[in-house]
Amino acid sequence: MPEKLNAGPKPQKRGEELKIIKFMLTHLMYGGVGSVVFGVLVLYFDIGGIWTLASASRDTLIFIFLLFFGMFITFGGISMGAGVMMLGGFSDNDDYYDERRYNHKDDGAN
After folding, report:
1. pLDDT beyond 70 at 108
2. Which of 79, 64, 73, 72 is nearest to 35 (CA)?
3. Is the pLDDT at 40 greater than 80, yes or no?
């Protein structure tokens, strides 16, 4: 009998995968909005003379694009990472009562 190539666990529902993608894209959008707000404020208040330098350059549009693209990647990644880290309810606290305390085999580790 031929072996199956992909014999691993199969996803239970297609909707669960779409929820994860929607969750990640939502958090990416939050980070993107934050990056646009932050970038506009940095340019408006001319922090570090960045708008003065950009407007004096002949490549102002490229500078603005690179500034906002870098901030979008950074803020979007931070937002997605924070969202993923806030998902779970697991804790390493010893006072946290869950199935580990009641459903474990005594392997001498405790």
Report:
1. no
2. 72
3. yes
Instruction: Round to whole Å and give the CA distance between 52 and 46.
Output: 7
Q: Give CA separation, 64 vs 13, 32, 50, 54, in Å.
A: 43, 15, 10, 8
Q: Give the pair of three-digit tokens for residue 66.
A: 């690179």
Q: In this structure, are residues 43 and 50 in contact, taking their beta carbons and an 8 Å threshold?
A: yes
Segment 16-42 shows an average pLDDT of 95
Distance CA 41, CA 14 (A): 41
Specify whether the CB–CB gap between 27 and 83 falls below 8 A: yes
Q: Is the pTM of this model over 0.85?
A: no
* Amino acid at residue number 46: D
